[in-house]
Amino acid sequence: MDWGEEAARRLTKIAETASLPGPGVTRLPFTEEHRVAIGIITGWMEAAGLAVQMDAAGTLVGRREGPAGSKTLLIGSHQDSVPGGGAYDGIMGVALGCLALEAVKDRPLNVAVEVLAFADEEGVRFPTALMGPRVLAGTFDDGTLAMQDRDGVTLRDALAGFGGEPDALAQMKRRAEEIAGYLELHIEQGPVLEREDAALGLVTGICGIERLELRFTGSTGHAGTVPMEGRQDALVAAAGFVAEVPGMAREWDGLRATVGMLKVSPGAPNAIPDAVSLVLEVRSERDAERGAAVAEMGKRAAEIAERAGCGFEMAQTYQQPAVLCDPALSDVLARAGQGDLPTLPSGATHDASAMADLCPIAMLFVRCRDGVSHRPDEFASAADMGAAVDVLARALIAFDPA
Ligand code: HGY
Ligand code: MN
Ligand code: MN
């Protein structure tokens, strides 16, 4: 079988059938689209001879037993997408894991293997993410079950309604000594491999992330009668800060800072804005630099607010540290790639970020056309996906954690 063509066929099918209508793929966790995806992925796992079940966190698990007493090697990624996202982000790692096990067939392996399709990596529906890997790593905070989506549905109710078991999550922590490691194959979502004319690349590490809510406060008034002098326009302050973010980010090598959400009140064309809240996201492979950059940005924001006669406050709403891929486990992929795989950091985060709290992680990137992702035109070629399946199959056959 041409594993790359089969991967392309499967990913096209699941994109077309397990998504809300509209451009690109929209498949949020614990929805009808997720349920359709579960059915399709179950077929992939069964074709690979895996025993399939959904765990309490809504992760679909396909398991192939290994020799008695052997450790388990985990392979996985996420089934969910961003709204209007691509057909490869996340789900490709699940498809390629199943195909590699199909390719291996019943050749003897030194480990048991599980393919994991995690429910929610993007954190779009609920203001949290990575529940599946965090439950396995024992780092999941039960408090997040109370978080609500835009319709007021709690994560607890959505999970229970989907067939998960919110009250059984605490018992799901895997024993680290039984796990040989976690491998994640993922579309690069950036332009590096394409620029290097490389189909595949080994990930050195995954960036850390920090999200902060910044609030600028002024005073509202009639847009037609309040003179320009002395206004305390919260949007003027916020816009002044947003305009400076790119320049501030460039002061730190490799740092990325983005303002992707902004809310204005009262939000009327004839009323001076008296409150603006925005979300600043800062990413870096170096946590200390990220911390320094956030502190400096907060200082600059306060100065800008003061110049506009406005108040200012900032609070952290999310953070996850940078994680390094395990050199030994990465080397298994490198050797299976016959040694000529380029290496690169990941500016996107992945389920592997959370799995790093349980076991060694390694990631293999697949070239991404034009570096485009989180968009309907995200694309990985069948040839490159076929090369990834071959590398993973060779790695599985050679891998011996003893
Ligand atoms: O935000 C990220 O990097 C990932 O796509 N969730
Ligand atoms: Mn994504
Ligand atoms: Mn992803």
What report would you give on this structure?
This protein has eleven helices and 13 strands. The relative contact order is 0.18. The longest helix is centred in the last third of the chain and has 21 residues. It is elongated. It is α/β, with parallel strands linked by helices and 402 residues long. It is 33% helix and 23% strand. β1 and β2 form a beta hairpin. It has two domains: 281 residues, 3-Layer(aba) Sandwich (Aminopeptidase); 113 residues, Alpha-Beta Plaits, CATH 3.30.70.360. One manganese (II) ion binds next to loops.
Descriptive terms for the model:
402 residues, alpha/beta, Aminopeptidase, Alpha-Beta Plaits, 2 domains, 9-stranded mixed sheet, 4-stranded antiparallel sheet, elongated, binds (2S)-amino(hydroxy)ethanoic acid, binds manganese (II) ion
Q: Topology of this structure?
A:
Layout: H1 3-17, H2 32-47, E1 51-54, E2 60-64, E3 72-78, H3 91-104, E4 112-118, H4 131-137, H5 155-161, E5 179-187, H6 192-195, E6 200-206, E7 208-217, H7 234-249, E8 256-265, E9 275-284, H8 287-307, E10 311-320, E11 323-324, H9 327-336, E12 343-346, H10 351-355, E13 361-366, H11 382-398
Parallel strand pairs: 3-4, 3-5, 5-13, 6-12
Antiparallel strand pairs: 1-2, 2-4, 6-11, 6-13, 7-9, 7-10, 8-9
The chain binds (2S)-amino(hydroxy)ethanoic acid and manganese (II) ion (MN) (2 copies).
